[in-house]
């Protein structure tokens, strides 16, 4: 970290600590910082780059600098309320915006002593973007108050991007984009692997390459600002982030690459009646799998994080797995270790597949499964997952040529015939011996045993929910109906 980076990061944290004394969470702080940074960057775009102003003069950054005390607080609240009704990036960032800095003096310090002291557009993207990303990660660590449900471990994102190899001209979609981790991972990977982009590729990467959906306001605004601070899009551009339920309808757009970690949790309670879906279910993770297939253009590639129940659930789950294996090349499955997500009690995997054109025969020929779960124990603080823990998976994946794969203790090949013959076409495939079941003298700590028990119970509950849904009575058609 350079001296400038350290100074900026230290100041970011110092102001966060000041505001936390007033009861603001990290999430509140980052949210308020997002509003102010956008106003400052919009002002710089006009004053430094000569662009047309996108903020009315009576609502712009300079209008904040001329006020103090309660007058400043009142004006800031007025700005937020007015901009909340705008569209584009403005609308995404300021939607339902509220001032949560209760002290006018501290608000003035944040505006005049910190944000106004820097020319944010001229700062290196790594400097300002990485600092902001660090703040977002901190909010994810705040438990129930944080943004953990929207935050995918960056080590996992890095490994997924490294095997998916996004190209500089490709379109990348995340229908559950959270704070934008997959977009930034793909963006940085492309810049590192293609140092000599032509003007068209560079323009595409900065505007148009990324499209996301996010149902919640807070992560959507954090994502939009995260992209801006990393040099993607501009304050006056249309927002690449749509604040909406991605599952509601087929957007009509198709993408070459889909990278996503849909939200974990119980069934959504909604059944989406979509003609492009293979079957109807209230399980939102299964619906996301179907939705991703729709989003992909023929030849498009996907990496989707899914909980265990997607691999073995009966009813709609079995139908979806059969169709997925038939219509796509489902070539790789990564079994993830527990203890790596901020959402507790999650047993998850990453499914990698490619969309194929319609054909009578199944497109999946073989599924390679990498087991990173058995005999692996991680925690968020004491033993967090790092990129190095995923190096062997990336090497085994053979991203440059998947046909050169070889089996190892952790990487096994299963043929399509083997998969289709399994009960419910279950993809919950294991073969390694769990040493903890054999070594009773060296059991893990009680809290780890309790956590694993909770994860097993939650997986069992998902199965019961699916069974209940499957057994729900259907309406009997009246006599003489067309269904007779």
Give the gist of this structure.
The chain is an alpha/beta fold. The protein contains 17 helices and nine strands.
Strand content: 5-15%
Main β-sheet description: 9 strands, mixed
What is the number of domains?
Answer: 2
CATH topological fold name of the largest domain: Rossmann fold
**Mean pLDDT metric:** 87
Using the 3D structure, state the CATH architecture of the largest domain.
3-Layer(aba) Sandwich
Rg, Cα atoms, Å: 24 Å
Question: CATH homologous superfamily name of the largest domain?
Answer: Vaccinia Virus protein VP39
Determine the fraction of residues in helical runs and give it as a percent range.
40-55%
* Main CATH class of the largest domain: Alpha Beta
Query: Structural class, please?
Result: alpha/beta
Main sheet: strand order? 3-2-1-4-5-7-6-8-9
- How many DSSP H or I helices? 17
Total strands: the figure is: 9
Question: Distance between the terminal alpha carbons, to the nearest Å?
Answer: 73 Å
Description of the structure:
- This protein is α/β, with parallel strands linked by helices and 484 residues long.
- It has two domains: 126 residues, N6 adenine-specific DNA methyltransferase, N-terminal domain (Ferritin), CATH 1.20.1260.30; 300 residues, 3-Layer(aba) Sandwich (Rossmann fold), CATH 3.40.50.
- It contains 17 helices and nine strands.
- It has a nine-stranded mixed sheet.
- Helix 11 links the parallel strand 2 and strand 3.
- Helix 7 runs antiparallel to helix 11.
- The longest helix is centred in the C-terminal third of the chain and has 26 residues.
- The radius of gyration is 24 Å and the shape is globular.
